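Researcher: Let's run the pair from yesterday's discussion. Sequence first, then tokens, for each.
Model: Starting with the first of the pair.
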Amino acid sequence: MANLNQGADPAALPILPCLDYGRNVVAYVARCGQSAGERFYKCRNHNPSGGGCNFYKWQQAYADHLASPCPAAPPLAQIEPG
């Protein structure tokens, strides 16, 4: 993964709500290990083993996620009433 001093300013990435839980994604910086100093993003409700959200992405994966088109909504004819 690229060093934070390279490329775009990491603070420039927008913080969006998690698609599953609707709460804003939170940005963190790893403090130890080989990823120390690298930024990552996760849902405030991140706890996949406890039934929570599994949204967790390193900076480049989050940037790619933001750049990807949103999933298309189903045609109205496919939406069941009620």
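Model: Moving on to the second of the pair.
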Amino acid sequence: MKAKVIVTGGCGYIGSHTVIELIENNFEVVIVDDLSNSSKKSLSRIEQITSVLLQFEEVNLADEQQAYAVIKKHKDAKAVIHFAAHKAVGESVEKPLMYYQNNLFSLINLLSALQENTISNFIFSSSATV
């Protein structure tokens, strides 16, 4: 049985490449993305490359109920890789509350849901550090 990994922001550039690598290394992957900085087109590209039908959940992790529901649905996951953060410096200065809401609330909601569902393997990554 394949180990399940949830990839938040899995339709974005770094997330989609990570999803491909996970699939190619025999992991079951669930993509969680709100599509605010990405497109569903990524899903078909990943499926073309890997020949795997993807599990996709369109979820805004800043919404506590959505975050808890998706983690509860996939509580058999062994790990979560979190790429779902906004990263544009200029936009963050113009819209700081939007960035706080997404980057902090989504992280807090996700970590709380993981703790409640006893998923302890968590990787946080942000292209904002590149």
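Researcher: Give me one sentence on the second I can quote.
Model: The mean pLDDT is 92.
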